[in-house]
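Progress narrative, work stream C.
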Amino acid sequence: MAGSTTAERGERQQESSGPPPVRRLKPPELRTIIIFAVALVLLGAGSVWLLYGSNWLRVERVAVSGTRVLTPAQVREAADVPVGSPLISVDTDAIEARLRRKLPRIDAVDAVRSWPHGIGLKVTERTPVLLVQKGRNFVEVDDEGVRFATVSQAPKGVPALELTLSQPDSRAASLRRFGEDRLVREAVRVAGAVPAAVARDTRAVKVRSYDDISLELIDGRTVAWGSGEQGAAKSRTLTALMKAAPGARHFDVSVPTAPASSGS
């Protein structure tokens, strides 16, 4: 009788030996678990104490940047940052809201924590594009039509806004239909569309009605602009018209496809 083959002997040996034993991980000892839990509790308690209870992370200074007309002292006073409080507990959103409410000249502000002891206030002030005379003072109007500050001296290079309607009935009708705020925004819209070279020489933006806005330049020349619509086209047309008629005194771009100039 022939002996078993090598393959058969290997199969019998594998069957007899069975699958390899599974190695089981020993569960962590109770002492290890307790030590780990205590360490976590101590770490958490230490972090809370460091942030809220220690003197290492408290507000000691308030830095202000970005001011032009306002002073850093004015901003700090209005911000009313709780110096001495834990830095982590300072409500930066409340500081920003307080500054915008107390100082309308501020257009945007970013209050940030500056670890380990500071609060930083980055301010962006509104820029006047028009002035409304009020008695002996001037009300500054920004590029959104917001009247944000009253000053005793007119800033240089900022044109006046004049609601000067020659016909009272027309003025009343325009105010009833659009409201004064809307007319002011249209004037701002025109001021923003005027070519830079003309804007530098503009003394006043005059509003007679929604679609009757004109410019008066410092040398006495005038520009009939019309409404605030088609500002880019009117700007290009005015630039070309002034080059073509440098001696003219009156320019009309209220209909940019049919401009006109007159006077000398």
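Work stream C, second folded protein:
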Amino acid sequence: MRQQTTKIPVSSIILDETIYPRKGIDHRRVGIFSENIRDGFTFDPIEVELAPDRPNMYRLLDGAHRWNAYKSTGAAEVEAIVKNLEGDDPLLYAAKKAIGPRQLTEEEARDTARRAYTGNSSLSSVDIGKAIGRARRTVDEYIADLRAVKLMDRNIKIFCMHRLGIPQDRMAKRLGMDQKTIHYRLGKMAAPPNSLNSDLSKGFTVAQVAQKHGWTDPMVWSLSLEGKSDRDRFRELGWGLRTWDKWEWNDCDKRFGDEWPGRIPAQLAAHILKYFSKPGDLILDPMAGGGVTPDTCLALDRRCWSFDMIDRLETRPEIEPFTWDTSSGQQLSWPVSSKEKPDLILFDPPYFDKKAADYDEKSISNLPKKEYLEFLETFFVLMKSNVKKKTRLAFINADWRDFQHTPASEEKYKSGILIDDYLDILKRTGWYHTHIIQAPMSSQRFNAGVVSAMQKKNILGVVSRYVIILNQEE
């Protein structure tokens, strides 16, 4: 049955090379087609689909030579079938159509197979082979190295998530794998750590071993520091242990966590873990951001369940996607249902109005002041009902004052959000502080020009930040 066709402008069609299976256009063939068109010959309609992210444009699925011929004759429109592939791989569809007139060359078939597998590793060799006109065994040879890398990549993800104590059912859901496969692979994972430990024993640095094997630094640190005490781990990592209730660092340790708005130093997270948890404890980070907490937990032998609104499966499989939805008017929900409850919650939310432009528009940093504080109150109540009686909370936040625009002498009461406001909310929701630790932000974030302008206007800046440790007992 002939499919429905429509006329679309030649100028609205593009050749997307990412889904074009051939190495180039055969201009001799285009020339022959052009002569046929001028002689009144009618071609089969070309096939297109709507171009992703290009409104009112179409990309070719079949008929690249015919389309070029129509362009060369000055035709304004072309007869086309607009396809909806309904999830089928567009590259493989285009390849299957392309081998109608003539087979793909060996180079084209190999390149198409590798591109298809790279874009979607769930494709089978049989599926790829049918599209490019090659046997399954041939496709296996084309993609053997890619498959090996992908398999190792998945094993690294599984190892990382297992090390952080994420249950296998959640690992399977996160990675799109069968739970039995997760279980099987975990049973076969003695070899990769052994090869890394062998390199470490030969004197290679953690960074060198991580680069060689494609692991992250924190994961290699978790192997390198295995069996050591917290004090020894601090020493190996080059972190001086702060003995008093003022924790101050000029820089974040770039080995732990990604570049992220409002990123806290791993040293800060490590001190919280050192003083208020023990090895093997389960740590919960409900707004994980750049991943400082799970990275630090790897280095200090703590388990960690972490969540964030931005899903980065390829680089951060251990941070599960979850949004604290404040827009629907519905009650907040807890990210995971589990019999096991955290021993410590490390809660470093986006601060009010600080770097709001750098966060996602759904971030609580963008909420009005009243709604921001209401969210925290609702969150603390929800948290209390989803943890153990002995669970501790480490709440990290900073004083907020609109100091950028106001001389110090003109600031008013209630014009900011200070530590007292957070303490009032926490106490009201059944959380009682045992420690208030000063952990000021570095003043180096202000350049000399900004400091000079502040001094001229008599503005008093804010570098205060606090770690408030709480439990549920008065």
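The mean pLDDT is 89. No further action is required on this item.
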